[in-house]
């Protein structure tokens, strides 16, 4: 039996996953991070993207839109800003969000635009679409 | 038969009031259930956040975040007071304000000034004369973090710039649907929980660099605590309203019964009088 590590994935609205896993791949802000049990202490920001974890039953995908990842040798905590399970990802909603962000960047008075927030929203929507393509829910 | 008509109208009006309080009770009950769900859903995040910040406080980090450092002298403190927007929820807000004022009075006795930021209409009105640094009202039954960040930022900036040396949050704790307890929580500086297992010398690997990550973490930590407080307060509000409206309905019912008794007595007396008048009249003929 492979060694395992406790993983908790929570967002402000709900708990997405809690259990023991063999491996986690997280979308760190500097690139994807693969984490195995007994990893040294690490703390990283997350970008929007796919979080994969492998349990004895297989590999599962989650979508997170940024947040913070903390690793202790026996414990991984993902504090996601928002997140959802891959099967809950909605292509239509992602597309709508992308369109909204685009419109917001173009249409309004540039003075009262919150570029950072819109950019983040756009990134998140893009990352969702990418993930949908990868898991084969959308053909494109 | 004086007063019978007046009593009847009074009974009618109390019955109408009871209908309203009954409806409010039921609305509050269903809203409370949803508010409780929301509160429970966001709890794991707050717990995990607290655990991670606890690790951070126990580590030997290359970068000490200002929120983890105790300032030697306290000249001014900040309070974030979380109340409801609407009334008719019993003594919920009054008890909360009493707790807050007691705490504030303790600081004032030591010559420490106080800055206030409030959530909710009731606190905004109650503390207006103290001068408010920031306020946010009418966030609805499902408050969003996005609505709160502005007010929170005012207080965090005040701390960062050294205008306040401590930050507290005053909110109602949801014990159960019958009991809500006002409590004062210290937000900054973060009181570290000592953990022996973590007392050895260690530090994180940071990505990207320590300051950015820890800053982001601390900001989220404070926001999550306040969000949890606001969500919990909504659940408290609904529970308190439900209880208050239930007792109002019960009281209305009691009053109606009493009035009905008086009305019937008056009616009976009038009939008796009429009969005796008729009998008396017949005898005289």
UniProtKB/TrEMBL annotation, chain A:
It comes from the Bacteria. Produces ATP from ADP in the presence of a proton gradient across the membrane. GO terms for cellular component: plasma membrane; proton-transporting ATP synthase complex. Belongs to the ATPase epsilon chain family. GO terms for molecular function: ATP binding; proton-transporting ATP synthase activity, rotational mechanism. Its main location: membrane. Residues 5-82 form the ATP synthase F1 complex delta/epsilon subunit N-terminal domain. It is a peripheral membrane protein. It is found in: Cell membrane. Coiled coil: none annotated. This is ATP synthase epsilon chain. F-type ATPases have 2 components, CF(1) - the catalytic core - and CF(0) - the membrane proton channel. CF(1) has five subunits: alpha(3), beta(3), gamma(1), delta(1), epsilon(1). CF(0) has three main subunits: a, b and c. Keywords: ATP synthesis, Cell membrane, CF(1), Hydrogen ion transport, Ion transport, Membrane, Transport. InterPro entries: ATP_F1_dsu/esu_C_sf, ATP_synth_F1_dsu/esu, ATP_synth_F1_dsu/esu_N, ATPsynth_dsu/esu_N.
TrEMBL record, chain B:
Keywords: ATP synthesis, Cell membrane, CF(1), Hydrogen ion transport, Ion transport, Membrane, Transport. One of its GO terms (biological process) is proton motive force-driven plasma membrane ATP synthesis. The keyword Metal-binding does not apply. It is a peripheral membrane protein. Produces ATP from ADP in the presence of a proton gradient across the membrane. The gamma chain is believed to be important in regulating ATPase activity and the flow of protons through the CF(0) complex. Belongs to the ATPase gamma chain family. F-type ATPases have 2 components, CF(1) - the catalytic core - and CF(0) - the membrane proton channel. CF(1) has five subunits: alpha(3), beta(3), gamma(1), delta(1), epsilon(1). CF(0) has three main subunits: a, b and c. This is ATP synthase gamma chain. The gene is atpG.
